[in-house]
Amino acid sequence: MQLHPFALERYFARYEFAVRHLLSASDCDGPSLTELLALADDEVTSAWQALRLGYTESQGLPALRAEVAAWCLQTLDNRAPREAVTHHSAGQGATVVPRSPALRADDVLLCAPEEGILLMMLALVGAHDHVVSIFPGYQSLYDIARGKGARVDFWRPREEEGWRFAVEDLQKLVRPGVTKLVVCNFPHNPTGYVPPAADFDRIVRLVEDAGAILFSDEMYLGLEMRGTEALPCAATLSETAVALGGVSKSLGLPGLRLGWLVSRNTAVLSACATLKDYTTICSAAPSELLALAALRARRTILAENLARVTDNLRLLQDFCDRHPGLLQVAPPRGGTVCFPRLLSPAGASDLCRALAEEAGVLLLPSTVYDYGDTHVRVGLGRRAFPEALQAFEAFIRRYPGAYGRTSG
């Protein structure tokens, strides 16, 4: 397997801990250890106080796996009716597909989120297989498959339609009986796009009808903007789909290095569990308990993080109004990031380099996504976002006219 350097991670490795201000982080500022333990229930608190740092179960702490399954099932609460979903197949009328949404702890495999992607690609994709992946996106979602010799076609968004990923475009890429894996990611990194629930249903059925497996990256689950219909976990809609989740993004706990794969596809989950013996073997005991505390307090944590993302988006929009020739923002529908188009003559890579080296502000250029030099990724989940934005604005004002018009 031949893998390319991970452009986004290499960029962060160079600048993330060398700058003062992070304006492109994709995670939220989550609770501190003290704050998280204060949110823990009595069961978790007692287990934490008695914790020994030994090996853990390879599949993961049963109580945590049960909590993950419960969260996934809870995503169906936004849907009506819960027992069935109506969808339209190409050339056919509406049909009602019964749901069998029962998820159990045994349908969950704990792993680091990046590890989950690797396990899926190792388990499912071989040389000459056909994969369809959302693009732009997190590089490992498609590049591991390419490294294994698979043919990867990209499902691209329509920027002029608010970064919409059109189901009809996906349908043109999926080859029934040939396509092995379809990779999606909603809320989407880096655009913040979330499809209507009806479109997500169509995606799930399209992939199933083609005989492929849907791999749904749901790391930003729970951070849907007001007015956006929250999507259900793909594993509740399909017996073959696999969902990737974790505590890094929406819950703001990337330091725990803990996520999960969820699926009723026992063959795929078993294959991933077998491969995990060659990676981490098991999760860290402290991380499992802290993640359990976070999931049981998720309503509180998610509400706080969503409020911060919403406030920071408003600040970004005000900033763009003051600098009308700099960035054009398509408001995200969910998640923690957005992907504004750079309107100034400067390329994104030159702007981001100067911003990091001269002002100590980290902004991510679209070149790290192999998506031209015309966009930047802005992260909205940090408490220090206002200060980072002020530093960006001070930098812009030092070069009047170089980065678009400034009002006021």
Molecular structure report:
With 408 residues, the protein is an alpha/beta fold. About 5% of the residues have low confidence. The strands form 5 sheets. It has a 7-stranded mixed beta sheet with strand order 4-10-9-8-7-5-6, sandwiched between helices. The chain is 38% helix and 15% strand. β5, α6 and β6 form a beta-alpha-beta unit. The protein folds into 2 domains: 124 residues, Aspartate Aminotransferase, domain 1 (Alpha-Beta Complex), CATH 3.90.1150; 245 residues, 3-Layer(aba) Sandwich (Aspartate Aminotransferase, domain 2), CATH 3.40.640. The longest helix has 25 residues. The termini are far apart. It contains 14 helices and 16 strands.
Rg: 21 Å
CATH class of the largest domain: Alpha Beta
**What global shape is seen?**
globular
The CATH topology name of the largest domain reads: Aspartate Aminotransferase, domain 2
How far apart the termini lie comes to 54 Å
**Helical proportion, percent range:** 25-40%
What CATH architecture of the largest domain would you give? Answer: 3-Layer(aba) Sandwich
Compute the number of helices.
14
Spans of 5+ residues with little confidence (pLDDT < 50)?
A: 80-100
Major β-sheet, in short? 7 strands, mixed
DSSP strand tally = 16
Structural class: alpha/beta
